[in-house]
Specification:
Length: 280
Amino acid sequence: MRPLYAFTLVAVSSSFLLSTFENLEAAPGKRSFRTIVPIKQSVPPGKTGMKTQSVSVKIPPPPVPQIQNSLFPEDSVPDTDLPPEAIEVPIEKASEKELGNQDDSGTSEKAAKTSQKDVDGPTLYRLREEAHRLADMGLKYKFGEDDPNDGGLDCSSTMQYLLTKIGIDGVPRTSYDQYYWLRKKKLIRDLSGKNASKKLFEKLSPGDLIFWGGTWKSGHKVSHVMIYMGYDADADKHYVFGARGKSSKGLLGNGVDIFELEPNRGRLVAHGKIPGLIYP
């Protein structure tokens, strides 16, 4: 009888405990507890649990800064892919003689006594004369055009045509190549910073090429060029010759014309003497 009695007690106790737990789970506001089974992950010997991947990212170059009050009206010239820019050649500071301000007494006296009109060669007088003739032809600004017989020119082709016409050899086609042409000859004077226009007028003289950047999306340091013609004391104005945008009109109402010099319309880059030009 004793073994049977013990078995009965165990059965009753199990039934009681089961009922008690069911009541606890059913009771509102009560929490039930469940066994937490740990998750095991095996890692093969000699390997790590993390995978690495190399990703190469190509960062594009910074955009060319946009200039307010551009030399060219908006949409006056198209976006285009141009040849690679020439490699910049470091230069030493040019002497006053190299910049055209010759101090040799014999050379200066001879130049002062001789009229440029009578000199055989590409003189500043001939440059001005031919520039006025081109300004009076009624030519339009035509991007990429280099023949005035087609009715127009762009800024750099105007310089190339004019200088070649008066006898200057080896004039490059584009404004940025014309800049490096002067740079290689040590005839350039770089301008930079907030006082660029002030620096420009310190040594600017008629016949100088003036270079700007950021006038349109050329992708190069230099994007525009014109020739300084001189200063009119009566009007208190400086003037340049060249081509400037489809909607710009010069003193004679043309795209290739004489314009008032506005140095701050664009980012001044440099000015310099024309190789081979005979200055007074």
